[in-house]
């Protein structure tokens, strides 16, 4: 890749991030689920309950930021904390039934906002963009200077 292309890619990625924040800004239909809070709930749901430190790295946020999101979600009644059966000092976080409901509602609301903005897009165009974004995200999540956990274990 040429340096000028890389600079343009950085610029357009930053522009995309600003646009996504704007389109995804909370509305009453989101029930207080900002994008970061929704990401925490999705990670907990995918993990089927886990300790907070198990998802902080996956989410790419600091433990203190995660702790803040967890406290806010708990206050909203969207997650629960239970004692870890393997370690009474630790807590397992799970998405509450209300959290599942609110997350689904917020995801539908955000999807509807995108549909309203892209009325002239075909499903094929949307899928092509999704594929490109998935490839971009995977590439950005890969650090070529750090060995993957799997390759470290094999040595």
Description:
There is one protein chain. Helix 2 crosses helix 4 and helix 2 crosses helix 5. By secondary structure, this protein is mainly α. The C terminus is likely disordered. The longest helix is centred in the N-terminal third of the chain and has 21 residues. A hairpin with a 2-residue loop joins strand 1 and strand 2. The protein has seven helices and two strands. It has a two-stranded antiparallel ribbon. The two termini are 31 Å apart.
Summarize the structure.
By secondary structure, the chain is mostly helical. Helices cover 65% and strands 10% of the residues.
- Portion of residues in beta strands equals 5-15%
Radius of gyration: 18 Å
Mean pLDDT: 83
Shape: globular
The strand line-up of the biggest sheet is 1-2
Number of strands: 2
Structure keywords:
mainly alpha; single chain; two-stranded antiparallel ribbon; disordered C terminus; 7 helices; 155 residues; 65% helix
Q: SSE layout and pairings?
A:
Elements: H1 3-23, H2 35-47, H3 53-59, H4 63-75, E1 79-84, E2 87-95, H5 97-117, H6 123-141, H7 149-154
Antiparallel strand pairs: 1-2
Helix pairs in contact: 2-4, 2-5
């Amino acid at each position: 890749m040429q340096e000028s292309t890389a600079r343009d890619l950085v610029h357009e990625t930053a522009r995309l991030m600003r646009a996504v924040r704007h389109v995804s800004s909370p509305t009453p239909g989101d029930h207080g689920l900002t994008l970061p809070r929704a990401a925490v709930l999705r990670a907990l749901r995918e993990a089927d309950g886990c300790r907070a430190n198990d998802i902080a790295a996956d989410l790419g946020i600091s433990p203190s930021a995660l702790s803040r999101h967890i406290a806010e979600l708990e206050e909203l009644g969207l997650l629960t904390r239970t004692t870890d059966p393997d370690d009474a000092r630790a807590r397992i976080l799970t998405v509450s039934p209300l959290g599942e409901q609110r997350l689904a509602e917020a995801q539908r609301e955000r999807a509807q906002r995108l549909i309203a903005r892209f009325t002239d897009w075909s499903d094929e165009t949307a899928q092509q963009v999704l594929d490109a974004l998935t490839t971009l995200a995977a590439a950005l999540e890969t650090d070529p200077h750090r060995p993957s956990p799997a390759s470290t274990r094999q040595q």
